[in-house]
Design goal:
eight-stranded antiparallel sheet, homodimer, 2 helices, alpha+beta, 165 residues
């Protein structure tokens, strides 16, 4: 009788270990699947680290907008820059930061939205340990495209980390 | 010996049935978890069915935009309407349709984007068997807000279903 009890216990443990492994794999796949296309690796000098850009839309110039999906690998970020017509960021994956010049950095995560006023110098990018993706909608582009400035130094980036949620 | 084999088999089956139930529940939760807040139920007459709206942004009027997250229950849809300044839809959940007046309906699913030109009369809404959510970014709002028209009849909606992906 004791022998049978041991056999039952072992069988159940073996089955459940197998099923829990499958569950965590499922969760991992669903967590990391992006909603919008990642696009191509950015090769210009307006970013630090590895960044991917997928521009969207048919380019209807009468709408005065340009928009796309931007994906940052951990620690990757934009240079300091501003938008004459303003921009909206919709965070769709991971964790990162937005910082307007002269203000504390603002931690961001999936589901957050940032309304960037016209001509405010700022940067955005990924947290040190997380990929980060956002839709970026540039507005009133007839007032001009992004105005790029210098890169965000490691010292500036490390300051931002102090404001983690 | 045969008895022991039967006991092992029953134990494994019982364990796996339990674990598969847990797995499908997990998958369901992750599949239906929205990225952006669902907001409040819409009570005006510009929609058919049950629709939720969460407006976003600090309302910086200098940006000439308004934006929010719209969630449609199955079969729910907007009335026919147009935007003097145009609008962008970013589909974040489920499946639905976009139809411009006089054109076939376009099936939409998570990850799709629609660039709606200025003054084009159209509707958007959920598929019959799926919830549907999109970010809606209205552009150039200094040219005027949405112009609403009549509801999308069941006949018009059923025509749209013929263009399922």
């Amino acid at each position: 009788m004791k022998k049978i009890f041991i056999i039952i216990t072992i069988s159940i443990i073996v089955s459940l270990v197998g099923c829990n492994t499958k569950q965590s794999e499922t969760a991992m796949e669903q967590k990391t699947e992006p909603i919008f296309p990642k696009g191509e690796k950015v090769t210009n000098n307006n970013f630090s680290g590895t960044v991917y850009l997928h521009m969207m839309g048919a380019g209807d110039t009468a709408l005065h907008t340009s928009f796309g999906n931007v994906t940052f690998e951990p620690k990757a970020r934009t240079n300091w820059h501003s938008h004459p017509g303003g921009q909206i960021l919709f965070i769709t994956e991971g964790q990162g930061y937005y910082q307007a010049k002269g203000h504390p950095a603002q931690p961001l995560r999936k589901g957050d939205v940032v309304e960037i006023p016209r001509n405010v110098v700022h940067w955005h990018g990924a947290a040190p340990d997380s990929e980060f993706a956002h839709l970026a909608v540039s507005l009133n582009t007839d007032d001009g495209g992004a105005v790029w400035s210098g890169s965000v130094t490691d010292e500036e980036y490390n300051q931002a980390k102090k404001f983690e949620k």
